[in-house]
Amino acid sequence: MRTYRYFLLLFWVGQPYPTLSTPLSKRTSGFPAKKRALELSGNSKNELNRSKRSWMWNQFFLLEEYTGSDYQYVGKLHSDQDRGDGSLKYILSGDGAGDLFIINENTGDIQATKRLDREEKPVYILRAQAINRRTGRPVEPESEFIIKIHDINDNEPIFTKEVYTATVPEMSDVGTFVVQVTATDADDPTYGNSAKVVYSILQGQPYFSVESETGIIKTALLNMDRENREQYQVVIQAKDMGGQMGGLSGTTTVNITLTDVNDNPPRFPQSTYQFKTPESSPPGTPIGRIKASDADVGENAEIEYSITDGEGLDMFDVITDQETQEGIITIKKYSVDRHTDMDRIFNIDSGNGSIFTSKLLDRETLLWHNITVIATEINNPKQSSRVPLYIKVLDVNDNAPEFAEFYETFVCEKAKADQLIQTLRAVDKDDPYSGHQFSFSLAPEAASGSNFTIQDNKDNTAGILTRKNGYNRHEMSTYLLPVVISDNDYPVQSSTGTVTVRVCACDHHGNMQSCHAEALIHPTGLSTGALVAILLCIVILLVTVVLFAALRRQRKKEPLIISKEDIRDNIVSYNDEGGGEEDTQAFDIGTLRNPEAIEDNKLRRDIVPEALFLPRRTPTARDNTDVRDFINQRLKENDTDPTAPPYDSLATYAYEGTGSVADSLSSLESVTTDGDQDYDYLSDWGPRFKKLADMYGGVDSDKDS
């Protein structure tokens, strides 16, 4: 819904002498401000006086993209010299006057004839003047005013590129910068949110994300592997109005390629290769080709072949064919006798005889290495010679000094300050040219608050001295003293050893008597540990009594029948086969058929009864009781019986009635009677017994006849 604002521009005119009128330069936001006027009057035409009013100007605002059918109203020009008699004529000039903007020369109404676009021209500067129709002379001086086009959100954001192309290394961390996209909006950035652009991602999640304000695209997923997927197409949307509903939007496509990193090792298609070569093949003869494949691309897929181990390490060589990326295995000879170098520590260049190491050497493990070098003629392999080679490993400072032994000493409780309690010595596996020079010091974390000090004797020994008078073994029975030992070689090596100092009771000569901390005795005669133990025993005893009482109470309610098949909520099957109809000792089924044969004083046998209730004598069902009434009656009795099981159980009832309420209709019995019977009641039984009523009623009629 568009809202249009209309502004009124009034021209106030004094004397009809344009040279003497002065326009006001103040502009306001739409409506006339406080009116100021210059009047021209006098006794003659040549005498100048103040007039009532002069020109009054304001800045006009016009909404762009007007879609109405009529001309868009801008404002109104009016002079106080205009008396409505048509003597004045209003003239408009400047930007778009007569084309975009027209004025009614009689009324001074200004209208826009076309739809205006702020993005094409945001401001129009025009000039207005009122003249006398009869003389053609202006009644006010010409003055300038502005029509400013107000912006509406009629331009969607446009990206600087329709398609962006970017690359990012594979396996990059989350948040790695990929590329920045930019969209511009032609709307007025100073008015509202029409030009405020917010970026979002429409396609490309969860692999990438975009910052809403900057348009920077970043990685959003770990371990994106180029070998699994190389190309990604991301669609980014730019929406104005700050991303709110109703804003206009534009999209762009970003094609992102994962660049390769060397994260895949070369792999051989097979684990074993077999080649044959004549014994007389000269050195350099190729005997076979092998090729490995690499999932990487470019220079990351370039392969370099080498022989790392095996029996033919000294007899064969491999070179790389740069064009085919194949490894060419060739023959080489001039070798090290592996019987003298079982660990293959040394290798020799078959061409120039240079010897180099293939493993790290440790002087402390083995100082001398004795190997044999074999020299063989190329053209005649049978011609060879051997020469012994003795290699000495020189020392480097790669071992830290350490204590010569494990130190555990003691200090007397009555020791004085600066008393020597232990002398320390160190050893080092290295053998420096100038000899060993060790230094001793307390570790930094223990130097400030330690109860002991270290005195470096400058002769590769050090002494541990007490730092205070007296120690209490009941407060602290053992001290762990970290001592740093450093050498004076390059690079400096150091280690930290721990000296255990125990506080002991000593005699007056300083000899150790006891290093155990006896328990402190309170004046009451019991130590804290003893009191805690007594209280703990009392608590355990109380808990035991409570548990024992609870178990005895639970045992009273325990069922007599203890079986892995719980009879509650179950039907117990005994798997016993009866003796048939002739077996009358197993179970008396007559109880189920005759409710009068209920046993008295029969209690449950599966639990111990808490109280003895006399079983209630159930009334005998009358002879013509329906089976359903019988079962309902038994169910009600079990629900109210205090001796009934407290859980669900299965009760089976079988009852055979004693006959129907109606007497027999058989005619066989009727012949045994001496008197005549009256069957008229059959007619009262309804249409179903009409046939019988007719039959027996007819017999009586025959007898009467």
From TrEMBL:
A GO term from the CC aspect: catenin complex
Lipid bilayer topology: Single-pass type I membrane protein
Keywords assigned: Calcium, Cell adhesion, Cell membrane, Cleavage on pair of basic residues, Glycoprotein, Membrane, Metal-binding, Repeat, Signal, Transmembrane, Transmembrane helix
Residue ranges, compositional bias (Polar residues): 269-279
Cleaved signal peptide residues: 1-21
GO molecular function, one term: cadherin binding
Gene3D superfamilies: Cadherins (2.60.40.60), TCF3-CBD (Catenin binding domain) (4.10.900.10)
Segments crossing the lipid bilayer: 530-551
Localization per Swiss-Prot or TrEMBL: Cell membrane
Region (Disordered), start-end ranges: 259-288
SMART domains: CA
Domain Cadherin: residue ranges: 79-159, 160-268, 269-403, 403-525
Record-linked InterPro entries: Cadherin, Cadherin-like_dom, Cadherin-like_sf, Cadherin_CS, Cadherin_Y-type_LIR, Catenin-bd_sf
GO biological process: adherens junction organization; calcium-dependent cell-cell adhesion via plasma membrane cell adhesion molecules; cell migration; cell morphogenesis; cell-cell adhesion mediated by cadherin; cell-cell junction assembly; homophilic cell adhesion via plasma membrane adhesion molecules; synaptic membrane adhesion
Protein role: Cadherins are calcium-dependent cell adhesion proteins. They preferentially interact with themselves in a homophilic manner in connecting cells; cadherins may thus contribute to the sorting of heterogeneous cell types.
Protein's name in the database: Cadherin-6
Source organism of this protein record: Mandrillus leucophaeus (Drill)
Record gene name: CDH6
